[in-house]
């Protein structure tokens, strides 16, 4: 989930106060299997078996430990055939929001009831036909934490290196998945994370697979990436806020005069973002986040609508609009649940301090879209999907950047027809898609920022089609 941009922008003018996470207990290594790798000095993976949520499948949880950084993960095997089904990594965004949001609110094996007292079975979980990892990253997100502020991560590039090391150790600890097709998936700010992770994997694969390299690091079988309602190419995507505000499928959000005023500010916004794209420094990238978010996001904030789903009012009791986020925190902060997971700190769903740190580092507007052409040229399949009721990373902007992307298949992709997707399961018109070679774009109807939350049946259907190569 993407933390509210307006809150992040306001924070730029305010002093940052360190949020100390409550340490529950020192790690009891007697409960964990600990694994390291000679070529990843300082990194270690500790994991333990878990019996929560979906008790019918094998699962584990634990931490990637490196120096003073500790990244929490929770893994579920497939309900179908773990040994032959693919492996999925899921990442929520923010920056600063836990991937356990995806687990309990969207696509995981169970959800939570009001008050967080129980976890009902989710029949539309993505582990129906895939093994899936939920990873809390960067540090100080969810159950992840750091022992020192000096080690806190503030850029997507640094976060990608930690994720790569995690994958190497996870696969070493679970060798039956070493050859499994691997898919990196996520939403929102994962539109930054995922291209950087894929690029890091491909670079690592080239090094590990070189004929003259005697490395013991694995060549990770990266089959695809899938980004939902992502922030990937701000220079293109920010142009479409005015158009979406007054021309979305559900009716105007703002007066036409307000949309015209927003459109009038886009030229300045684009110019500042292009400066960030060119120089990629803190000093050239932070101004774009400040100006453009104020120009394009602030007008929406006055409406009281849910920035992630314009069909709803924002829950006034939750700064991120959804009451279920409080239920997830209540469940995960129960002592017996934390004991079962073997966690070291209290759970926080979204950490605005992490959001501020990435903003102040200038990461928000950086062009991670520039990594996409090489990912495609390397033969990795790419799916960009977006719910049509989301404002913050709306489908118009996501569709536009896929059309403007410079790669060898651009002309073919732009000439490819847009086809209506009718769900085989529900019989409903579920979306509109375009595909050419290994790039696909999908608009999902009647869904907001969290597509699996709003359309659980349709989201399971399209991810299964995607990972089985039937789409």
UniProtKB/TrEMBL annotation:
Alphabetized UniProt keyword annotations: Carboxypeptidase, Disulfide bond, Glycoprotein, Hydrolase, Protease, Signal
Signal peptide range: 1-18
Pfam family of the protein (one): Peptidase_S10
Protein name: Carboxypeptidase
InterPro entries from the UniProt entry: AB_hydrolase_fold (IPR029058), Peptidase_S10 (IPR001563), Ser_caboxypep_ser_AS (IPR018202)
Gene3D superfamilies per the UniProt record, alphabetical: 1.10.287.410, alpha/beta hydrolase
Catalytic activity, EC: 3.4.16.-
Parts of the chain that traverse the membrane: none
One BP annotation, GO: proteolysis
Similarity annotation: Belongs to the peptidase S10 family.
GO molecular function annotation: serine-type carboxypeptidase activity
Catalysis performed (reactions): Release of a C-terminal amino acid with broad specificity
GO cellular component, one term: fungal-type vacuole lumen
